[in-house]
């Protein structure tokens, strides 16, 4: 039996209707209307009023009459219907729009993720936000790269370390490729969070003080770097070939787990020696 293809317009219409009908009018500061309600939930004109659109627009959406709401309208509808994060994301997907980042970017590790960073030992693991701020790390990562706790919080940033830190600058065997991919990833993050002043400040600092970054930034390459490999020159363990995975938790999409593994037996032995210190 063939599964029927999803009609996005029909599903969007049905989703908006069901979410409107489950709302309790008493929870909203709307003008009282004396006439009895024949159907549960809010009226279409009430949702229109809350979202700042016309009633006719809501009618046409709920009747799947060929409209494709903008990201701004989808955001307003999600707010009017009081959608939780999962349903908000679903609405954006149905409308084929990309949601704006909700709330302030994470500057501290979510406690369950901080515990997970430790639980993933003996693998070297760290937790970052979208602008490469390092929010948590385990002992294995500290021995592999650097004890980030020795740095002021403003310098616990993987991009800053790669560009500016005198020791980390020389860590990567294929440094040109590593920096190029990191800059392309940072540009993608910047495009998704254009109002993040801290991120814009970092980019301005890098552009002003590092010619390599300024040149690569001007090339406008984009890359979501979720998996790859690196070879580092460790001052005690020698060359270590690493593979990495970047995982994004559903509950905390602004935070990313970076997990390193040895790429070969020689590198695994080098990591074992570091752990034994």
UniProtKB/TrEMBL annotation:
Q: Which SUPFAM superfamilies match?
A: lambda repressor-like DNA-binding domains
- Give the InterPro entries listed for this entry: Cro/C1-type_HTH (IPR001387), Lambda_DNA-bd_dom_sf (IPR010982), MLTR_LBD (IPR041413)
Q: Where is the HTH cro/C1-type domain?
A: 41-88
UniProt cross-references to Gene3D superfamilies, sorted A to Z = 3.30.450.180, lambda repressor-like DNA-binding domains (1.10.260.40)
The signal peptide here is: none
Q: Which PROSITE patterns match?
A: HTH_CROC1
Which PANTHER family did the record assign? BLL4672 PROTEIN (PTHR35010:SF2), BLL4672 PROTEIN-RELATED (PTHR35010)
Q: What is this protein called?
A: Helix-turn-helix domain-containing protein
Q: Which organism is it from?
A: Streptomyces lycii
